[in-house]
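Re: folding output
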Amino acid sequence: MNNEEKNLRIDVDGEGEVKADNKLTSLTKGKILFYRADYPIKYYNTSEVFRTCFLTFQGIASLPLLDFYNFPGYLVFENDRIAHQLMDICKAADSGTREEILSSRVYTLINDIGILLNSDSLPRSFEKAVSSKPRS
């Protein structure tokens, strides 16, 4: 059983940078950073204000899901729908939402990111999930 931690972070305000694989990538409002806990990265602020929403998750089901979608060790990307989902999960966690509900929402989020990352290679039935609007 592998309970390796994984992390998602979204820049809420300000600017920063992430250094990984000898590359610097800017983090600005709305950018999402995914990384596995054992992946060698450094991130830091480049502006006076730098606030993020940080989500750590683990579990026996998450690793096979990441492997299925070929998640890299780290990834920086932008997507309004995914950002909205991540912010909603962070707010729910802060407000004391039960763990099993948060777990379900995180697995849905990871699945949605995987679909987004692999939209060119997945069967056409996945396209609706990639292009659908967030539920109200």
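--- second protein (sequence, then structure) ---
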Amino acid sequence: MAVYLVVLTLAMYFGTTDPTGDIKRLLMVWAAFGFALAWGLAGWWYQLPWRRSAIFSGLMLAWVGLYAIGTVHSDFRWFSVITLGEFFSLAVLYFIASQVYRTAEQAARLMLVICGAAAVASFYGFMQKAGFDPLPW
């Protein structure tokens, strides 16, 4: 699987005007699908109860629904379908997170991981700007 991801990444990099954006969108959709599949199978196997989602679930579903209606009537249908897929993937990730993270401590640890990843990415950006790129693309 790792080899496939490397080949896919390199193949897509030269064939698009926004290579990093396309790769991020692809990984987001795969993550949403994988997490939803894992959560669904774990819930079925272990008979886990579905928690009522947080406050924003209804708003998120309404937003995705309105965007789906807009996609049907759009003059730029394929671009709208891609963006609808992104919004749907984000809604799935939000739903899975609302099911998995139950306490404030768990949410705080998630935020710590996100902030740590942002710090590493920022440090890498500063290194590139200074001319010390450890991964010359």
